[in-house]
Design goal:
Helix content: 25-40%
Strand order of the largest sheet: 3-2-1-4-9-6-10
Structural class: alpha/beta
Order of helices and strands: EHEHEHEEHEEHEEHHEEH
Distance between the termini: 25 Å
CATH topology: Spore Coat Polysaccharide Biosynthesis Protein SpsA, Chain A
Largest sheet: 7 strands, mixed
Radius of gyration: 17 Å
CATH superfamily: Spore Coat Polysaccharide Biosynthesis Protein SpsA, Chain A
Shape: globular
Number of domains: 1
């Protein structure tokens, strides 16, 4: 199984560096890593080029011009570059536990998409790690919040497969088969700005018939602290589209990945 890890980012190269460093610490490497870059400055590209020198797998940088928050578009462009048949997506402010990729691979099943949870780091710990350009996080690290989400106990995972079965997911710890993703045509690019873009995609995967598999206590990740980027206007606009897709039982959206695969 060829696994592609897609990491979204925007103008926070210090956080992205830690995320890429955590790729290098994995017990099992992905086939490729694709950076979905929503218009970062040139310093992000320079950092990626430097990391690429001793990176353990293929590292691609997919960039689009900075024209506001357009995560839906850059994710679709990144998906179009995926050569793997299974895709894991995270955000560029995520540090992965060393078993993250291994855990996702072990839980991949035909007919399912996978969703995991995340621990959070407080502001002080986040700033310390960014200064060090390195990390050492464990369950008792001072500044680690949501410790229940940061506990790796694989023997408990099967008990929670249907945990939060009908809850809305975020895209920071999500995995799916490429063929299922392409059947939905990816992110709905009518959604511009923050909010609902990564909730809508799993909802359409479920309407496709793909079941949710929640993997608590595996695929552990740690979220760096940062200020919120959301605005009420953007959330309202995207929620209207999300509600419309639900009402019309939409599975495959019109403006998606296929624009970049022709």
């Amino acid at each position: 199984m060829k696994v592609c890890l897609v990491i979204s980012t925007y103008n926070w190269k210090e956080a992205l560096y830690l995320s890429l460093l955590s790729v290098k610490q994995q017990t099992q490497y992905p086939y490729e890593v694709i950076i979905a870059d929503d218009g970062s400055r040139a310093d992000t590209s320079l950092m990626i080029e430097d990391v690429r020198k001793d990176f353990p797998c293929t590292l691609k940088h997919v960039w689009q011009e900075d024209d506001g928050f357009r995560k839906s578009a850059i994710m679709n462009k990144a998906f179009a570059r995926c050569e793997g048949d299974y895709i894991i997506q995270i955000d560029g402010d995520i540090i992965m536990n060393s078993h993250f990729i291994e855990d996702h691979i072990s839980e991949a099943r035909e007919g399912y998409y996978v969703h995991g949870s995340r621990g959070k780091l407080d502001k002080q710990l986040t700033q310390a790690l960014l200064r060090k350009k390195d990390y050492n996080i464990h369950l008792y690290t001072k500044g680690l919040k949501r410790k229940f989400n940061a506990l790796r106990a694989p023997f408990l995972t099967p008990l929670f497969y249907k945990y939060k079965e009908h809850s809305k997911e975020r895209g920071c710890n999500l995995a799916f088969w490429k063929q299922d993703l392409y059947a939905t045509n990816g992110y709905d690019e009518r959604m511009i700005g923050y909010g609902y873009e990564d909730i809508d995609l799993p909802a359409r995967l479920r309407r496709l018939g793909t079941k949710k598999r929640f993997i608590k206590f595996k695929a552990i990740e740690y979220h760096l602290d940062h200020d919120s980027t959301e605005t009420k206007h953007e959330m309202s606009h995207n929620k209207t589209i999300f509600d419309e897709n639900n009402m019309k039982n939409i599975i495959r959206i019109e403006k998606g990945i296929d624009q970049y695969t022709k």
